[in-house]
Amino acid sequence: MNGNVIDGKAVAAKIREETAAKVAELKAKYGKVPGLAVVIVGERKDSQTYVRMKKKACEEVGIASFGADLPESATQAEVLAVVAAFNANPDVHGILVQLPLPKHIDEQAVLGAISVEKDVDGFHPLNIGRLAMKGREPLFTPCTPLGCMVLLERCGIPIKGRRAVVVGRSNIVGMPAALLLNKRDATVTVVHSATPKAEAEAICRQADIIIAAAGQAQLVRGSWVKPGAAIIDVGTNPIDDKTKASGYRLVGDAHFDECKAVAGAITPVPGGVGPMTIAILLRNTAESGERFLTGAVKVSGAEKKQERKGLAKLLPTREQLASPLPVLAAAVGVAAGAVLQRATAGRR
Ligand SMILES: Nc1nc2c(c(=O)[nH]1)N[C@@H](CN(C=O)c1ccc(C(=O)N[C@@H](CCC(=O)O)C(=O)O)cc1)CN2
């Protein structure tokens, strides 16, 4: 921390260092390194930047990177074929499909087609379902929300029993962040686009921890913050800035100067959560590589059978199915649906 500003770059650098050591250890032991496949569809400039950053980061820690760049016009069948090829490639231990996808592609169908054991982004319905369940853990946790939790933990900010508010409910950040905070025993409230602004402000003002992930520049103002609260800002919004050569600068979903004056701790943008997203992706990929290389997860001709066995282990118990909690029931429904779909496909 510099004063009350959390240095995301420094924490991310430490995680990258730990990951590089793990990759070197695997290489020495098994003569192989973890491999990450990155799939991008279309020509969005921001997505291309993130994909470039991910490939460079892989190189820096010794992870092998694989890639597929598909044009904006790619069909869903083409995207699914690329995912299937990476699922079957034994040198690939992690697969991510850069989001967002073009509108004509069914995002959930693509994410659900990634082998659950290679889902280093943690967006597969089975991994999300397990994140929602008490007593279960996903194979992978989504990188940005996990990055937020690691920042809190490594900065010594307590979570258990604290009031946490998540601003935003996206599949990539808000929803999994709320599930994670709940798993770490915080008392969690989610405010979102349908929450009246005055109400969102009043709810945030009670929070010990705010995770701002609404995708709206400087939405969270100083008046929204309880003195001493921790603010983890996930937003990366470009706003006009004539003093910059590019003509713009990035700001978060929190008004940095106003919030910094009140908060006990705050992440900057850039240099806060962003670098953590990529560091956690590398860590998830190294963990996946280790599972495959140690034989904890198998890739072979019998892959389908293994996969079904793995999926069976992920099925909810009778007790979990009977849970009255609507969020749990919904997650179980999604997960069970996906299992049935996969198991049926395997029998065809
Ligand atoms: N398949 C995925 N798609 C997307 C994810 C994801 O986790 N998986 N997250 C975001 C984008 N993202 C990674 O993909 C990402 C965003 C921001 C950063 C980052 O390091 N930002 C820097 C600023 C970078 C700049 O100057 O442009 C920072 O905040 O310091 C990394 C990754 C959506 N899609």
TrEMBL record:
GO terms for cellular component: cytosol. Residues 142-290 form the Tetrahydrofolate dehydrogenase/cyclohydrolase NAD(P)-binding domain. GO terms for molecular function: methenyltetrahydrofolate cyclohydrolase activity; methylenetetrahydrofolate dehydrogenase (NADP+) activity. Pathway: One-carbon metabolism; tetrahydrofolate interconversion. Keywords: Hydrolase, Multifunctional enzyme, NADP, One-carbon metabolism, Oxidoreductase. GO terms for biological process: tetrahydrofolate interconversion. InterPro entries: Aminoacid_DH-like_N_sf, NAD(P)-bd_dom_sf, THF_DH/CycHdrlase, THF_DH/CycHdrlase_cat_dom, THF_DH/CycHdrlase_CS, THF_DH/CycHdrlase_NAD-bd_dom. It comes from the Eukaryota. It catalyses: (6R)-5,10-methylene-5,6,7,8-tetrahydrofolate + NADP(+) = (6R)-5,10-methenyltetrahydrofolate + NADPH; (6R)-5,10-methenyltetrahydrofolate + H2O = (6R)-10-formyltetrahydrofolate + H(+). Residues 6-121 form the Tetrahydrofolate dehydrogenase/cyclohydrolase catalytic domain. Belongs to the tetrahydrofolate dehydrogenase/cyclohydrolase family. Catalyzes the oxidation of 5,10-methylenetetrahydrofolate to 5,10-methenyltetrahydrofolate and then the hydrolysis of 5,10-methenyltetrahydrofolate to 10-formyltetrahydrofolate. Homodimer. This is Methenyltetrahydrofolate cyclohydrolase.
